[in-house]
Amino acid sequence: MRYSIRSQIVTGAFSADSQILVGTNLGKDANNLVGQVRTLGVSIQIGRDSEGRHLEVARTIEADAAAVWEAFVDVREWPEWGPSVTAVECQHRYIQDGSTGRVCVFGIWFPFEIDSFSESEPRRWSWQIRGFSATGHRVEQFKGSRSRAVFEIPLYAVWYTPVCQIALSRIERIATTWESRPSYGWYGSVS
To answer: Which of 4, 77, 131, 149 has the fewest CB atoms in 10 Å of its CB?
Structure first.
């Protein structure tokens, strides 16, 4: 079974609750971004993993990590939280290691493959779009019902930071209202 999800491009995506770094030259120097947006509820820092350095755009969310993770892995939710994603086609509703499909970004379809997927703490997945490494997606559980959602952006795509800032705001809204959503618990229960 294939899932096909379509969404209209949301007008007013840059609303007051989704502020971005207006006027910052994102391509000039990734280090200039580090820590500049903490007042917007988002932190930015340089991270390092086995593949090298990347930019981490993160937000602490007042929701359990399972709810955030479900938003990250359910392709039906991608157009809801991803400002650049207008549609998704995938053979799985919930991605897993090796899942493939197509994603429509700003009206253009691109093939994707999930190239890394782990449900152990911290939960994380990453993908390739048209064979190029794209964003990583990570969720860390804090004590209680708090978690941290993180986008890992390749340094060559530092310009994508404002898109991730908006996405984190939308993910927070989705995760904090997850129990009232019809698909809640489909992937895994939130306790």
So the answer is: 131
